[in-house]
Amino acid sequence: MGAGGAGGGQQQAESQPIPPSRAPVPVQPAGLPTATNRSFPMLQKRLMSALVAFDVNNAEEIWREASALYPSESLCTEMLMPVQVAIGEGWHRGEVSIAAEHFASRFVEGKLHNLLNMQLNQPTGPLAVVGCAQAEMHELGALMVALFLKWAGFRIIYLGQNVPNATLESLVRQVRPQIIGFSATTIEAAHNLVETGQILSRIEPPRPMFIFGGMAFYERADLRVRVQGGNFIEGDFRATARQLAAQFLK
Length: 250
Known about the structure:
Helix content is about 50%, strand content about 10%.
């Protein structure tokens, strides 16, 4: 009977609710991403902070986190490019060092190169040759165009920086692309695209569609009309790629 009484007392004690002040409190591990800081505005802010601090490990971790959540196109338009633009604007205002701006640009370019190379060309898609004008060393615009054309169904030959005009005629005759596109951010490179247009116009038909763009043609809008046979592209790269796909993928 004594044991039974003790057991009853134990059951009664175990059935008593735990006072709120003594209840265990869930602990959120430090640094664990939440839904809030996985939104694109917060990912942009976190990535920019890591890049201007030269914190490559943190930047890579943020990139891996975002890559697990969002498709590649969204990563380009909603993360990489806004961060690059914001850092560039910070440099112009004197808030970001030139070293940090260069570091961020190399990080963004590296990710765009990885995205371009990770997907194979469509075996039957129309061919687009994309690169930077002669004397142009900034690849971001050309890489974005190449990526969105590839995602739209084009086969891509990406030529990278500083493509000499002297190589273009033989290249076009060899691979016969449907589109050839170049970017220029400097006035020197834009003037070189004037020569590019002249070279391409001398090639016997069928000639590729010649597209071009870049910041230089905003600084000197008069140069746009001097690029013979060229089609100036601006605005949303994704929309441009889809329009070209609708034209060539028939």
